[in-house]
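Case study 2.
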Amino acid sequence: MLEEVRSYFEELQSISKDDRLLVAISGGRDSIALSHVLHELGYDLGLAHVNYKLRGEESDGDADFVKAFSEQLKLPFFEHVGIVEEGKNVQSEARNIRYAFFDALMKEEGFSFIVTAHHEDDKIETSLLNLTRGTGIHGMRGMASSENILRPLLNVSREEIDEYVTQHDLEIRDDSSNESSKYKRNKLRNEIIPSFLTLEDDTRSKLLTSIRNLEEDSLAVDQMAEALLEKENDILKFRLSSVPPGSTSTWLYHAVRKLGFNRQQCIDLLRSPESGAKVSSESHTLHKHKSEVHVIDRNRISFSSMQFESFGIKKNSLAEVELSDKKTTNTESNNWEVSLAEEAVELPITIRTAKDDDRFKPLGMAHEVKLTKYLKDKGIASHNRLHTPIACDARGTVFWIPGLQIADGVKLKTTDAQCLSISFIYL
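Prediction:
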């Protein structure tokens, strides 16, 4: 077991011996064994325990036991009392309390990773449990480590953990609630899986092979799906024509699931006949726009205005803009870099986002139009129009929409002695 954990960390490129690890510890055999192994390997640890008070004196005894264990190993110990509100799902709410505590500790105490003692048997349980919930390929793969949660025992069996505990004569606490089959996971662990694994002599190994195959398939699907998202300025676009017509909602789901969207939301969005239909997760919104789905961060960064009194380069969090007197060699088809008649543009120049009352006189037109209508006619989605950068002069006249068009009257003529060039680059 020790060598398995050592190998796990050696294969991780994102961790060094200088990183602090926060171990989630209950006092049971799995987390006690994991803490002991990591201590033996010399990692900088802290132990975090949550007392939910669900088993009265037994819960308090767990907390006292873990505290004594941490003192024995001379490790920092952090305890949190978290009460599950009556009427809520106990296991789900306990998990929320637990990880909120761990996240807070990571920020306050400078831990780099949370480490949990989930092992090979937990992975089997999770895969089968998710199967009963109507899961897909990602749920069937069981468990995996994530960006800041490490699970070094996922290839270690419960039997191997028992051997380690016995070999090192480690004291542990047994949670009496684990014997109750009123929870689905316990029923699987105590009754169904033991019987299921007797189907054939190698059922366990074949089941683990299936889970490993699903892990690889899940990773491959994620990589393929994420490649379907195209970055355009400050949004992501999913083109419906980029996937087979019979599987658009499935590929959309795989592309955006990590942003908090579920499969049904993707199905409902694409089935909606409504122009501009949208669905939201906690962090993002999906907008249906013609043959595309736009992925917008709900905390979308606002474009900070820039003002030019003279030539130079300015940046904000989204773009870099340069104002100079050097004539650009770019063709008129590239409207991200333009050369204009200097006398037609009065300084200072302001680069800002469009406003609802802006007017614009496009090149070649005899009259002004409402800017938002012009943007609509150019195919700019409604959710992007007031996020579109524009350039206006000292009089407030909009003379350029980067990437789209310059205004009539500012085009550089061959007879113009001086020019004013502007380039706009999204970062």
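The mean pLDDT is 91.
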